[in-house]
Queue: 4 jobs
Job 1
Amino acid sequence: MRARIGIHKAQLQIDLREVNLKQKPAEMLAASPKGTVPILVLENNQQSPTVIDESLEVMLWALVENDPDNLLHSFDQSALPMMLAIITLFDDEFKTCLNTYKAARRYREDNVIECRQACEVFIQELENRLHQGPFLMSAQESLADIALIPFIRQFAKVERQWYLQAPYPRVRQWLNYYLQSAMFTKVMAKHEFWVRIG
């Protein structure tokens, strides 16, 4: 999802291939043997194409190519390292807590509240940041905002009724801004699975 958001924000044209991860195409595995999505294959004049198979790396590639909204905040040399630090924190630590929280809820375990509270440490950090302005880094949208959307969306869905009354109004407003946007509708559009015939 966030790779698609990055490419959309960069206004780049790509050939999008939706794959069924239960029936991974041979071309996909040949490009990236680890067999996860996203995979961006960049054809070039060299003998073999360049392959990028991490969502954050796809986003960075896209925005280096074209960044019309200045999501990398080129006006501030310290901005990108700070963004990457926040994203890494959520990629590593928050994602682990979120997966535990989702599993506890799904399997009706008795530690759902404790798992949620572990996630809330990170959500509170975002709430605090959003007290300063409408976006996570400043008054202007950034890479950090678009990179964290998928994680916060997943968090919001685990216990929907609790989330709607939780003490994080600015996080809700920030997430709703994206979920109700034309950008999100376009990025989340369903595509037919890509199947190579013959």
Note: The CA atoms of residues 39 and 121 lie 32 Å apart.
Job 2
Amino acid sequence: MSFCSQCGTSLNEIARFCPSCGAAATAPPPQAPAQPAASPPGGEKVLTMLPQAKKMKMMGLFDSYTIVFTAERALFARLSGDVLKDVVKKSQEQSKAEGKGVFARVGAQMKAFFNASQRYLEMTPAAILAEDKNNFALPHASVSSLKIKRRLEAGDEDGPGDPYLELEWEASSGKYKFRVDMEEKDALEILNRFYGGKIRR
């Protein structure tokens, strides 16, 4: 229902003039179309990770990586010297702000260094990839197989070396081999979640 803008008399929907004062009836302003509810923020999210991964180089050298998983892909994040320096620096600043003593600060730095991979759980995939020029992503759909082999480090007079897992992704873009120093059961639980039937042993 609308009303006369001059005298306030109620008007029916088809009235062109007010029956009381004769003023021209004005059409009510059109209602704005209902806006759809804003969709909740979404996007790709970090789900879990494999820390302590190593990409072997020549002469027994290696680069340290963390393999971060989203529902769509695996992100290979290199723990470069610059990244680790930044982690330690932030730990120092936090310890200082909390008023910790010298020994407590050293302990906090060592813990931050050891747990450097944990911060990836709070980062976006885009930020992870942008952190180092060597970081890259491997879409799960592009992987044809993931070969997993249990290996032992070379031993010495004290006995056999420590066990580790050798992982080799075969994808449309090439092959990617890494070693992971963590419990086999824990690693397989994560890898089965994303690759399942693509795993070869």
Note: Helices lie at 81-97, 102-114, 125-130, 184-195.
Job 3
Amino acid sequence: MASWEEETPGHDDETGLVASATRGDSAAFETLYRRHRDRIYGLMWRLCGGNSALAEDLLQEAFIRAWQKLDSFRGDSQFGTWLHKLSVNVALSDRRSRMRRLTRETGMDEAVERSATGATDIYAGQRMDLEKAISRLPERARTVLVLFDIEGYSHVEISELSGMAVGSSKAQLHRARNLVREELDK
């Protein structure tokens, strides 16, 4: 079976793919998936603290949500930008859900917050690098660090996405940078 691009010459641009996918063309959506999956997976992996299984689940959830909401894409920005924000919302929504569940089960402290991703101490004896240092951050600090320093969001955008105050976002970024610096200095 030929790919969407082979079947529809001249419609390789993102706008044409989105328009076709909006009309139900699953091959066009598959092409969009293939173009964007690696970047979205990287985002999810960082937001999940390096938990590959959770990142893969959230990647799939983000693309399912994108397929369901494709008709809400107005074209005010590039499709990749829209998909990126939608994916951040999927990850943050999942985080809030896991945190509510953990809060009901146990008192909230930093150790519980770190365990919300299911992370275990797999780092013993391994060389600490930047990605590992980021993955060890408490979730709120990691989320702000990834969105601000890696993905380029502003504190106002982070506030809108996460529901935290701009001042809290700035404080979490400061905290995250200090914790990463401490981890790298070890």
Note: The CA atoms of residues 156 and 166 lie 6 Å apart.
Job 4
Amino acid sequence: MSVEIREAIAHAVERLEAAGVPDEALAEYVVRKRVLFVPRAPVMVPVGRVWPLGVVLLGRDGSLHATGKITRAVPAGYPGYQSPGVETRRGYRAAAFAGDFVEGDTVNFDTTAIDLDGVDNTSTPVFLADGRARVRWNPTHPGESVALDSYLAERVGLLIG
């Protein structure tokens, strides 16, 4: 089964690269240790480059990740203390800006890698049903899914335009 999945992914990567579709950064959010009892700000560390395809992120290396959180690598600005959510997002922008990214780059983080050899039916948007790889659009409606190859072809077509 993983051969079918890998072929669909390889075809999608080829189409995206041939069309020159820009990709986005994939990062890991790292809470740094204190130095001499002084807290250091979190930072995002680059992990790779991906294309956003709805509920999954497609890596240039052929990997798949479940979509997580997203921010931009821009200066965070000053605290406004408007709401906890606003301040959390400001902290994410600051961590991305402190990372090794081009200013303005879109950064995806807090994602879950999808093991293509051990696709299961519970924890990721990609699962097996009737011997075929499928993509679950909405985790609350597991019956609503589409074949992985069709999903990738449609999403790549949207990015290529």
Note: Residues 2-19 form the longest helix (18 residues).
